[in-house]
Amino acid sequence: MSGRTLYAKSALTLCLALVLLAGCAPAPAQAAPEAERTFFAMDTVMTLRLYQGGSGETLERAEDRVREFEALWSVTDENSEIRALNRDGRARLSQPTADLLERALGLCARTDGALDISVYPVLRTWGFTTGTYSVPNDETIAALLPLVDYGQIRLEGSAAALPPGMEIDLGSVAKGYTGSALAALLRKDGVTSALLDLGGSIQTVGAKPDGSPWRVGVRDPEGEGSVGVVSVTDQAVVTSGGYERYFQEGGASYWHILDPETGKPARSGLVSVTVVGDDGAVCDALSTALFVMGLDDALEHWRQYQDFEAVFVSEDGSVTITAGLAEYFTLSQTNRALTVAQP
User: Which uninterrupted H or E stretch holds 106?
Assistant: First the structure.
């Protein structure tokens, strides 16, 4: 269709940007990893780097774990458990899938539907899952919205059921969950220092070999480089932003982060949200949900739960960080206003 411009960045581009930003601090060059593995999975490029402990065999097992999860959760693989659930409305799930679905439903409830894993059919209608991008009319969206209701999903043990016509996608929590699972696997293998880049979801194991924290860049949503750098040890860092995948039509931009209530791209005043915490699945889910909520509601969520920290970049270019990052975040661009939110 003429007049439509696609800006869906490739997984490789995003991955390389994150790797570069991870070492963007003005510090001595980072030591080379003892073992490294790069592969394509979950629709993105992943790079796993071990700095202390473990071996190539450890990384091989880690990649196998990723591919096991992908085979279970892919919405496009005819043989996946999620595809079977979407197709048949009922499925008996393996333990990893049941665990992930239970976590996802809990996070949907925690965010009062700002995260809703049943928004998948609407996302597909916009073309963000197929690559055929178009702006659906209001009637089309209205017809799909009754199916967006995580509360109608049933999970009893390993048995899952969906109402007729509903489909789900666990992509909003899958990479964060996977990162935490890989970190546990590596620690069990004796790894004490590692950096795992799962294509936009960063998971660290321990600190750098010299004992200093990892420095992960928060990408500038409007250009090259970073807005700032967050220092972390043994934590996950997950970013969601409108710049990750979007298209333009008729002079307007439409990004892939949808508001489940409207079925349209979330317009909350935020352009990116980075969540830092101990639980990768929580960070992954909240990076999307807080974006949908907008800054004020997102900060109220942080004050209520106190189990994560966050960096918010607003449309006006200002940056807001939660108080727990005050000593661990460095602003890269001095022309930006920085606010530290208090509990």
Answer: helix 95-110
157: left (phi over 0), alpha (psi -120 to 50) or beta: left
CA distances from 206 to 31, 35, 59, 179, 211 (A): 15, 16, 17, 14, 8
List pLDDT tens digits, range 197-254.
998 899 999 999 999 999 999 999 887 889 999 999 999 999 998 766 656 676 777 6
- Say if CB 45 and CB 11 are below 8 A apart: yes
- How many angstroms separate the Cα of 284 from the Cα of each of 275, 279, 339? 8, 9, 23
Q: Which helix (H) or strand (E) is 64 found in, with range?
A: helix 56-73
What is the pTM (predicted TM-score) of this model?
0.90
Per residue, what are the HEC states of 161-199?
ECCCCCCCCCHHHHHHHHHHHHHHHHHHCCCCEEEEECC
